[in-house]
Structure formats: structure tokens, C-alpha cells
Predict the 3D structure of the following.
Amino acid sequence: MPDGKIFDTHAHYDDDAFDADRDVLLTALPSKGVGAAINAAIDPASARRCLAMSRRHGYLRTAVGIHPECAARASDDWLADIYRLSLESGVCAIGEIGLDYHYEDACPRSIQKEWFRRQLALAVERDLPVIVHDRDAHEDTLRLLQEYHPQGVVHCFSGSVEMMQQVVSLGMYIGLGGVTTFANAKRPAAVAAAVPLDRLLLETDAPYMAPVPCRGRRCDSSLIAHTAAHIANLRGMDMRELLDATWDNACRLFRLKL
């Protein structure tokens, strides 16, 4: 167990990968140093599943939103659902929302941008932070963040140090996870070393992207300990200091008293 509390700001515990042992795992995570985790929904049905989990496990919080890969199926009813769900106790953000240009067939860019705009507007209206997905869409993502000026985090940040500085200048946070530990991950490592400590969040994207030395395994929030150790080493600081700072950052952004 790490010497410090883990706050995983991005996980997907409603994913099928957890079907066999979800409640057993979620019950065990606090004993492994996990003090808080945010379940990021991908559509209204996912948001309901995440909310149900947060009611069973008190350290979980929920972000409600429509993922860009789901935007092709989205409707006005979905947006109304997300708005209603955002009013529920335990909801701390609008997410996971954003742009993903990696798989061109998943959803046309024009539709992705439309739904990103609509959910950014909803977040600003509800005064909730956003959890932003940006994959191979740096320019459009940054342009829309500059237009709407939401509070929030760009999760699994894959941009340059220069883009990180632009995101931070908007008052937003940078989410880093297991990718930072990969041998070929030069950009995330550079960002991890350069991002202001008070703008850094730790995450897993569980069940995906387990850090070295667990790469290839199903990821869960406890594995942040490996990511934190790696980032602390890159920054020349104590791991506990890093965990404490990122805990405080997450509580500040998501307005949680934990």
C-alpha cells in the first residue's frame, strides 16, 4: 500500500472487464490505499450504472456525459438525461466528453464537435467541471476549451508541453496515468516533469492502460501507486508529497470535502 491516499480521477468500473468481480474489487480498493475514485460515464445508461456503484461504495463519485465515440447515437433525449443525472447526489463532473479523431469511422468529426459543444455549454450552465477526452484532436479540443472556458481536466493528456501550458493557462488541470510509465511515452513524461504541481491529477482509465510493471493486466485504481512513483521520480520529489498534492488538487477541482 502506498504511503499516501490515492485519488483516481478517471476510471470505468461499469466496463465489462469488471463483471466477474466488480463488487469484490470495489470493496477491497480502500484497503489498498484508494481513498477516492471518479467513475466516468460514456452515455446515460453508463451514468446510471456508475451512480448505482457510488451509492454502494461511498468513496466513488460519478461524472455523467456522452463520450465522443458514442456521439453518433446521441439524441436530444440523451442530453436531457445527462442534465437530469447531473443533478443527482454523487455527481461531481460532466464527462467523459470531448473529441476522438483516432478512429475516423466511429463518429464524424462534425457530430463529435456538436456534442462536445452542447456538453461544454451544459457544464458551464450547471457550474460543473468537465472531464475531457482528447485523442488526435488537440487543435479542435483546445479551440473549444478556449471558447467555453470550462473548469475541468484534460484526461490522459497526450499533447505537448506547450499545449499543457495553454490548457493550464485556462485554469484547467492535466490528468496523467499509466501511459506516463511506458518506455516510448516521451511526451507524457515531459509533461509530467513540467506541469505545475497544483495542476496535476492522477488517473488510471481503468480497466485500460495499466502502468509498468503491470502493463497488459486489467488496470484498477490501486495501480496508481506505480504511476505516482514514476512521476515523483521524474519530478525529483517524494511520492507521498505527490499523492497528497494530487489528492488536494482533485478535491479542489471537484469540490469535494474528503
Q: What stands out?
A: The chain is about 40% helix and 15% strand.
